[in-house]
Specification:
This protein is α/β, with parallel strands linked by helices. It has a single domain, classed as TIM Barrel, CATH 3.20.20. The chain has an eight-stranded parallel β-barrel, surrounded by six helices. It starts with a strand and ends in an 11-residue tail after the last helix.
């Protein structure tokens, strides 16, 4: 298991991060999983034995139960783990007050204290904003996060699901105000969703922001178990309206290539899809989820080999989406001046 530095920081995290959306059972959605503390402990310990030190959760996952289950699973091994959790959304437990959501100082301070209690720890390694709050100024959000770092309750801060201009504004605010800057950005990225290659990945690399990838298998679609033209199997995320690809035909063309490479390699299509993301430029860590030990062991095995150049080229070609404006214009008209970071 390779370790990679998280952005500009000196913190090293494993290239695989175990996600916890399958932990707990309060959310009631079958596709999320219903793992108990005992089941989750087995997955957490299996991951750690394989070299994983990075675990991602959120306060809203299973109405806080995912944090509780993760904290219980890490009992006795907390010092060996890097815990990342998130704040932004309303807890799905019936609370509906006007301040029970967003990135205000009020909500952040209340939420971090609750997360610390549920996790059974006195510090959070990486505290992430879970989304965009267009109402709260970055100055307020980042000052609150900076205070938590100075108080020792949080060690690093990160963001999730921002546009390039939103993340750029946050980093500029941190620099201007002398506040803790986002060390990482957690984004969706897979062979079925490559839009982040246009701005978010180059921007993160230029600014020294670590990239955490969620849904590298497109909600399980890239595991190769679903067939072209068929109804999504019950219990999958596609079946409940999540992770429907923008271009299903291109995605299933990609799955055909995944299966071919997997057969030749004697590995699963899921491993091939994970390997492609793990080798992506600027990617720090890939968040995987698992419902059982078999899934987890298969996903972890993706760290033990590499794609051949011709295999990666085939996957790149079949999954490449059309360029939107102004990228197609720059590609057509400005090719005489390659980007500085593309020079030999």
């Amino acid at each position: 298991m390779r370790m990679r530095y998280l952005g500009r920081t000196g913190l090293q995290v494993s290239e695989i991060c175990l996600g916890t959306m399958t932990f707990g059972g309060r959310h009631g959605f079958q596709h999320m999983g219903q793992l108990t503390t005992i089941e989750a402990r087995r997955l957490v310990h299996l991951s750690m034995d394989a070299g994983v030190n990075f675990f991602d959760t959120a306060d809203m996952y299973s109405a806080g139960q995912a944090e509780e289950v993760l904290g219980g699973a890490l009992a006795g091994r907390r010092d060996d783990a890097i815990i990342a959790t998130k704040v932004r959304w309303q807890m799905p437990d019936g609370s509906s007050g006007p301040n029970d959501r967003g990135l205000s100082r009020h909500h952040i301070v209340r939420s971090v204290e609750a997360s610390l209690r549920r996790l059974g720890t006195d510090y959070i390694d990486l505290y992430q904003t879970h989304g965009w709050d267009g109402r709260t100024p970055w100055e307020e959000t980042l000052r609150a996060l900076d205070d938590l770092v100075r108080a020792g309750k949080v060690r690093y801060v990160g963001a999730s699901n921002l546009t390039s201009w939103q993340l750029t504004r946050a980093l500029a605010t941190s620099e201007r105000q002398g506040l803790e800057r986002f060390a990482s950005h957690q984004i969706q990225y897979s062979l079925a969703a490559r839009e982040v290659e246009w701005e978010l990945l180059p921007m993160a690399e230029a600014e020294g922001v670590g990239v955490m990838v969620w849904s590298p298998l497109a909600g399980g679609l890239l595991s190769g178990h679903q067939e072209r033209g068929a109804q999504p199997p019950p219990g999958t995320r596609r079946a409940v309206g999540w992770f429907e690809p923008v271009d299903p035909e291109r995605t299933f063309d990609t799955i055909d290539v995944l299966r071919k490479i997997a057969d030749e390699r004697r590995v699963s299509p899921a491993q091939v899809a994970l390997r492609w993301v793990l080798e992506g430029r600027g990617v720090t860590s890939v968040v995987i989820g698992a419902r059982n030990e078999r899934q987890l062991s298969d996903n972890l095995a993706a760290t033990g080999w590499s794609l051949a150049p011709e295999e990666r080229a085939a996957l790149d070609a079949v999954s490449r989406p059309p360029l939107p404006y102004p990228y197609w214009h720059q590609d057509y008209c400005d090719a005489d001046r390659v980007r500085e970071n593309d020079r030999d």
